[in-house]
Amino acid sequence: MNTISKVQQEVVDEFAMFSDWQDRYEHLIELGKDLPMIAPEKKTEENIVRGCQSRVWLNAEQKNGLVHFTADSDAMITKGLIALLVRVLNDRTPQEILNTPLTFIDAIGLREHLSPNRSNGLVAMLDQMKRYAVAFSAKPNEASLVFTGFAAVLCLCPARTSWDFGHRTTPPHLRHILMTTEEKKALEESIINALKAIYDPEIPVDIYELGLIYDVVIRDDASVYIKMTLTSPACPVAGTLPGEVEQKVAGVQGVNGAKVEITFEPAWDRTMMSEAAQLELGFM
User: Fold this and answer.
1) Whole-angstrom distance, CA of residue 16 vs CA of residue 107
2) Is 157 one of the annotated active-site residues of the chain?
3) Model's pTM, two decimal places?
4) Rg value, the chain, Cα
5) Which CATH class for the 181-280 domain?
6) Among residues 149, 106, 142, 147, which one has the least CA distance to residue 130?
7) How is the chain split into domains, by residue range?
8) Catalytic option among 52, 155, 157, 235
């Protein structure tokens, strides 16, 4: 079997055949179609990589000292991304997974061409795979592991190393994992549902699917911090939409106040929309 480094180079050479990123996206979709399907009984809540735009299931088992991954997603491009990760890291020792740097992501330009949500999803999926490797390293005789109530998170925020809240700076994916009790997961779902009920009056897609929500943080006191953007600084609802978001989220049962921060870094563009939103607006 080729080493991880050799497989990465194969991926780089493969993507180099496509000069246009539209063709590369189509190739990603084709890779997703060829992804070995996860067993139906493994498509459980425990194996979900929780996220904002799509559902991803990731399972890991150890066979003869190697970590075997299977996965699936209900979104085409996301399925292609997890297919790439499985292709590179599948059937490796935990030590190989943990010690080999993944250079192909930057080499083929994924990080700069993915939307912030998908970029964070890629990071979260990789993080979960490495967590499986860590767990198998600690328990080498375990055939399989389940991270109950503890899945990697496809964050709502653009790719950043950390956010600073008071005296605490925590990477977004770790912050979410630390808070994944059933109660807080339910609260997060309620907040997302509230965001999905808010629309820019000129666009027939809610602000969540539109990709305007960059980050949602539920603090320990149940107050909620939201970082969001607008389609442009000159958006007609710039003066009212943030207040509406604060009001709707603060009104969610169990929420102890909400604060919205507007940012234009990175600037919004249509790639930040969910696939459903792009279809609704005729971009796919």
Assistant:
1) 10
2) no
3) 0.54
4) 19
5) alpha beta
6) 147
7) 4-138, 181-280
8) 52
